């Protein structure tokens, strides 16, 4: 069965303090924590290097070193973990220095009770996991934001552009600095489309999924498929993701033109076929007529003209 106890490392050169803390934790939360001990600075660095613990209790006084040195070591190796600084007496300067160096909390040994310590440990682990999840989501968001091939704009219902990704600058030919000083309605080719977009997105829980026409800095049209959704109703902020479909629409238009050309060709062939059949009959009839009638001065010219004209029509069709 997997051990679900949370592993904690206590870095303290006083063994009595370690036993006291371990006893208090077991009394308050039996079998919830596994506390191990590092009595020296060097032993602490070895244990930290293994990255096996979910939280670290660090005494401020460690012989020639201090708990601040431990916190700085965390920073130097790029290791993020919750650290609670312990000290024998309250000192605002130490408290402030510890917080700046990255401590999760600061506790005075003589003032804390078992429940206070357990609560601080539980909160430190929980808060660290929560903050790490937020940081991971932010990394994912900014990864998508920075690398997306779509135009991504964060704006508000006052039409202010709050942020824009690199591809927004690339597609519109505006620098990021220029975009951040613009109103978003200036990106729409038609004022009526801009008005309609803001009316729809600024309603409660709005989601807009439509085609619009943007324009770049030179006024060139950009056909876009917009997916926009409200982020914060109170602040009126929304995220707009616009896919550039200019090339796609041009290809569709060319395809439609090609299809029209093919259809026109089919119609022309059908008409030609329908016309050729009666013209052939006319040619045969004219030929038979010329053979049967008695020639007159006008007959050869008129019948010959009709026959040749009909033949040309039949050939052209």
Provide a descriptive summary of the structure in words.
- This protein is of the alpha/beta class.
- The protein has three domains: about 140 residues, Rossmann fold; about 100 residues, Beta-Lactamase, CATH 3.30.450.20; about 70 residues, no CATH class.
- The chain contains ten helices and twelve strands.
- It has a five-stranded parallel beta sheet with strand order 2-1-3-6-7, sandwiched between helices.
- Helix 1 packs across helix 5 and helix 9 runs antiparallel to helix 10.
Helix count equals: 10
* Average pLDDT level: 84
Number of strands: 12
Q: How far is the first residue's CA from the last residue's CA? A: 89 Å
Percentage of residues assigned to helices:
40-55%
The CATH architecture of the largest domain comes to: 3-Layer(aba) Sandwich
List the helices and strands and how they pair.
Elements: E1 6-11, H1 15-28, E2 33-38, H2 41-50, E3 55-59, E4 61-62, E5 65-66, H3 67-76, E6 83-87, H4 92-101, E7 105-108, H5 114-147, E8 151-156, E9 161-164, H6 166-172, H7 176-179, H8 191-201, E10 207-215, E11 221-232, E12 237-244, H9 246-292, H10 299-316
Parallel strand pairs: 1-2, 1-3, 3-6, 6-7
Antiparallel strand pairs: 4-5, 8-9, 8-12, 10-11, 11-12
